[in-house]
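Entry:
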Amino acid sequence: MKRLILFSLLFCSMFVFGQKSITATLQHQDSLVVDRFVAMDNFGALYVIQNNILIKRKDGKEWQYNNLQLGKITSVDILNPLKITLFYEDFNTVIVLDNTLNEIKRIDFNITGEFKNLAAATTANDRNFWIFDTNTQQLEVFNYVQEKTPVQNLPIPEKFITLKSNYNFCRVLTETTLYLYNIYGSLLSQKLLAGVTDFDMTNEEVIFLKDKQLYFTSNDDIYLINLPSERIAIKQFSLHDDILYIYDGVILYQFQFKKPTKE
C-alpha cells in the first residue's frame, strides 16, 4: 500500500512538471571563462572560482582567497557579503571571510567538542551556520562562536543532496523531497520533487534543476521556465532579487521573468 501511495505521488509530481510555464527574458550576457560561477551579491559584486581560488570582482577590482591545503571548495554562501561562508567538505572545515575575502573565523569540525561530519554548511542568523551532519542525518543550527548546537532537527531518512538557506529558513533537498525548516527547528513543509539535482531559493520561491531544465515553484504550483534558446547548457545558476543568472561555462546570462499570479 505504501509503495502504491509513493508511486501515485511521484506520478502526480512528474505530471505537474511542464503543465504550466513562464518565459524568461534575456536582460544581459557577458563572456566569462571560470571553473565555477558562484553568484552576484547585493552590491553587484561577482563571485567565481578559478583553480580552486575564490575570486570576487567589482568595478574593475579583484580580491582572492586561496587555501589549497583544505582541498576543493565545496560551496560558497554570500548571503551576507560581510561574512561569507566557505565550506571545504574534504577537510570538514568552514571558513568565514569578510568583504575583502580575509579570513576572520575558521571552524574545524574534526576537533569541535562533539565531532560532526558535515555534508553542507551555509549562513544562518547571528553567529550561526546551518549545517547537515551525515553522522546523524540531521539539519542543525550551529553557533560557531560558542561551538554549540542550539537547534537540532529530527533525522532525515533519505539521501542528502544539498541545502540552501537564508537567515531564518533552510531548505534541504534529498533524492525525493524538498524540506523547509525555520530557525527554531520546526519543519514547515515538504514538497515531493523526485529527480531534482540542484536548486536556489528566496524567502518563498524556489528555482530547481531537473533533467537539464529549470523550474520555478511558489506555494504548490510548479512552472517550467522557458529560456530564449534551448542551446543554453546550464552549468550553474543563481536566483537573486528576481534575477535568474545562468552560467554555461562560457557566458553568464542574466534573465528576468514575470512571476505567475494566483488565479
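The longest strand covers residues 21-31.
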